[in-house]
């Protein structure tokens, strides 16, 4: 069987960095986040795979909200954020006594300038995720999200708040990074509160844009608006798109 390329690329990076792969922390089961698990587990016997959803490939350790893990000096707090999927887990990492800022691996819950689609959850859940679970982390936390969709997110943010100078600056910066083929990730949590509309649902401008005052309703309306934002005229079949998003095609994409 021919192994898929990504696990081998990852193992090549690990070899160059002279580190040992001991564990995988998976945020959720979608194929674009967990597709390499089985192959890596096959190539690295004894590999531990952590996650909160039985649908995650090669899962060995089911984690729960607030659970803490240790990998050498690295400490990890598991933060359960159901909504994009019902079993979505974010991972907050830090090292005691380190001058480096902590890091949040937010999967498809919190993006630079955006948030994930509510595939298996509600606006209430996402509001809790963004305000009580992720929004209360230290402000210098670096946000490592699961996708590079910063420019598109910030174009929507500019539609929502056309007068927001921070949005304008961040969008110009993100476009420049894209042009140079450089990542826009990570941001910091502190920055996100200045330009990410999904973290700004109590602001007057957001209430005005959505026509709602209750923060959950602002968030719900905002997500619907984002889902309909500049949709391409020729859309693939919606069911097919959902099948892709839910990972239903992954067995076919993984043909040996």
From TrEMBL:
Domain of life: Eukaryota
GO biological process, alphabetically ordered: methylglyoxal catabolic process to D-lactate via S-lactoyl-glutathione
Pfam families (UniProt xref): HAGH_C, Lactamase_B
Metallo-beta-lactamase domain segment(s): 7-147
One example GO MF annotation: hydroxyacylglutathione hydrolase activity
CDD domains: hydroxyacylglutathione_hydrolase_MBL-fold
Family to which the UniProt record says this protein belongs: Belongs to the metallo-beta-lactamase superfamily. Glyoxalase II family.
Protein name per the record: HAGHL protein
